[in-house]
Amino acid sequence: MAPILAIRDATLYYGSRRLWAQLNLTVEPGELVAVLGANGSGKTSLLRVILGQQRLTNGTVTIAGHSAHRGSKDIGYVPQQRRIDTLTPLRARDLVGLGLDGHRWGLPLPGGGRRRRVDAILGEVGASGFANRPVWLLSGGEQQRVRIAQALVSEPKLLLCDEPLLALDPHSQQATTALVDERRRAENTAVLFVTHEINPVLPYVDRVLYLAGGQFRIGSVAEVLNSETLSEMYQTPVDVIRTGERLLVAGVPGQSAVHHDDVASAS
Ligand SMILES: Nc1ncnc2c1ncn2[C@@H]1O[C@H](COP(=O)(O)OP(=O)(O)OP(=O)(O)O)[C@@H](O)[C@H]1O
């Protein structure tokens, strides 16, 4: 099967600062890759490169065989965002409908096609019950469902999620990750999932991309999230402790003692 995402020899510098170099990553349909790493290690920048919003210093990125470019219809994007608190008049269904507009350049779906697509995805993410409510009135978990629906309504081949678990309680974190997992299984959607909280995604992760200190590691959870690998990347002792089904990471410079989430069970 052809990869959905192919990153070849990718290097990104901002001025003289190297975020990562010679990064090679191919992602197959239906694969879920967790993108982890310390603040400022370049996780969002990687997503911006894939979205065609940031040029690489060196290397190439192709999505479904096409060079990365803005407005790719093959990509759905859940941007890093906190609560929608402004008094926006948009209802949940309006926000989801915007996900159909970006790629269509003014060619509306015929007849009731647009409404059917929006209703169908709202149903899939469990948001039908609040489809007509203003988004600012929704809880954090409800808003996250709507954002994911917006990213999925155009039926992308690749879903990019930038910290979708931020500020969600453990139940909503579980629900959000389960939702993304269901969709990639049903539609074979490939997923890059940027998160600081590994435990809610641990049951679903195929591979991990870890960014730190201008370096990266790619592999299974066991290959990357271990004391030896992270100590080598951070050049200081880092402990990865498995307690039951959860991973605790301690000793990452600049982070609290427990780096990854310490509340949600991965079961
Ligand atoms: N366009 C830019 N020009 C220069 N520096 C930038 C630019 N965009 C981001 N940076 C810097 O590059 C570093 C990486 O930023 P990025 O947002 O990719 O990190 P991140 O891993 O997503 O961080 P976090 O976990 O805090 O969200 C940061 O120090 C940021 O300030």
TrEMBL record:
Q: Which Gene3D superfamilies match?
A: P-loop containing nucleotide triphosphate hydrolases
CDD domains under this entry? ABC_Metallic_Cations (cd03235)
Pfam family of the protein (one) = ABC_tran
Database matches in SUPFAM superfamilies: P-loop containing nucleoside triphosphate hydrolases
Spell out the protein name for this chain.
Metal ABC transporter ATP-binding protein
Report which residue ranges the record marks as coiled coil: none
**Keywords for the protein's UniProt record, in alphabetical order:** ATP-binding, Nucleotide-binding, Transport
- Native organism is Paractinoplanes rhizophilus
The ABC transporter domain extends over 5-238
Question: Which family, according to UniProt?
Answer: Belongs to the ABC transporter superfamily.
An annotated Gene Ontology molecular function = ATP binding
InterPro entries, per the entry: AAA+_ATPase, ABC_transporter-like_ATP-bd, ABC_transporter-like_CS, Metal_Ion_Import_ABC, P-loop_NTPase
The domain of life for this entry's organism is: Bacteria
